[in-house]
Amino acid sequence: MSKSSSKSSSAKSIVKTVDLNSRTTSSSTSNLYKDILELVLLCTLTEEPSTSSLSKIYLTELASLDIKNWDKNRIDQALFERLRICDPSSQLITSSTKRSSIAHEIISENRCLHYLSGCYQRLLRQRDHFQLILDDIQKLFIDHSKTAITLPSMYDDQDLSKQWIELLIESNDNALLCEYIDFVNNELLSSMTTEIESLYKKVFHYMYKAIQPLDYFSNDVISYISVLTHLSQWAILVQMIFRLSHPKTLSNRSSRDAHISSTSGRAFQDTLIGSLLSKSCLPSIPGKPFLFFNKPKLMSERDIEITATTMWQPMKTYQDHLSQLFKVFVKSSDARHNVKLS
After folding, report:
1. What is the CA angle 256-257-259, rounded to 5?
2. Is the same domain home to 101 and 123?
């Protein structure tokens, strides 16, 4: 065989190998995207009961298409259809042989932001398996979350601000959820819009209403302070918090007590920051306010010791968390003056 024939044969062999590898990679990536559909979105295009241990939501529109290869655009289509289903439980396909490894309440989640945050967390828990397409799918969930918040009319039957505050509170003990919220906030707060401001105004109003009746020993108060501390890494939110906590804005809040004028001494107390600073400093315990001072002579030394421990520890915890919150506030140059006035 001549040298030229040998070189030509080798070249053809290389081309075939490259083509085969390319098709193998393409097929492998397509399978990954299909796994995203089933393992992350918890959806299926098969109407018959599955033999796997995972129930799924049947996507009618996507199932009508003859899909040969899966890619990011197909996942985007699937996600859009899933989010538009009003009653996902009506399209639940259960396993014919096994009990579902994920609760049906999670699979049938119909709250937009809860579902998207759940998808994000499921993706990250399987990051090694989806490493090749991880960044693209992460961004997809963040983009859909941003769209939901900036175009609330798409989900006018849902209370997105309530969903967001629920996720914020839950993120206190959930690192993956906290990461999701941070990514969404970075996208949202890069350019403030009317819709984003409206969302956070409702969130802060909800927090104010929840904090106002609570005593310092309530764990819920600590949870809300932790949320505020975390949100304060975004200067624009710190500005909003203090703007909404200025007594002059009292007349604009529907929650205002009709008996409190905007010039009264209680005006600041009737705000988000004011509700945190106006908690009684007299030590008390749940259900028995100021027992320590009412009848101290009727209490044994042991009772006094127990009562004192019960009172002082939560008070210290509250003060520590509140101090940390204001330290974060002070780091924001735009809000520093307002902090000093508080």
Report:
1. 135
2. no
Closest CA to 144 of 114, 108, 102, 105: 114
Q: Is residue 246 part of a domain?
A: yes
CB 288 within 8 A of CB 334: no
**Residues 329, 260 within the same domain:** yes
Cβ–Cβ < 8 Å for 122, 172: no
Instruction: Identify the burial level of 174 via C-beta atoms within 10 angstroms of its C-beta, where 0-12 means exposed, 13-18 middle and 19 or more buried.
Output: middle
Cβ–Cβ under 8 Å, residues 57 and 118: no
Under 8 Å CB-to-CB from 120, ≥6 apart: which residues? 138, 141, 142, 176, 180
222 and 302 part of one domain: yes
Output the pLDDT for position 260. 45
Provide, for the chain, the percentages of residues in helix, strand and coil under a 3-state DSSP scheme, each rounded to the nearest 5: 65, 5, 30
> Residues 217-265: pLDDT tens digits?
889 999 999 999 999 999 999 999 999 887 765 544 444 444 444 555 5
The kind and range of the H/E element at 58 are strand 56-58
Task: With respect to residue 15, please indicate whether it lies within any of the assigned structural domains.
Answer: no
Structural domains in the chain (count) = 3
CA–CA distance, 108 with 56 (Å, rounded to integer): 8
The stretches in the chain having pLDDT less than 50 are: 14-15, 18, 20, 251-261
Instruction: Name the amino acid, one letter, at 154.
Output: M
> Which residue range is the domain that position 257 belongs to?
207-342
Same domain, 247 and 147: no
Domain final residue, candidates 47, 77, 109: 109
Same structural domain for residues 117 and 101? no
Q: What is the pLDDT of residue 312?
A: 80
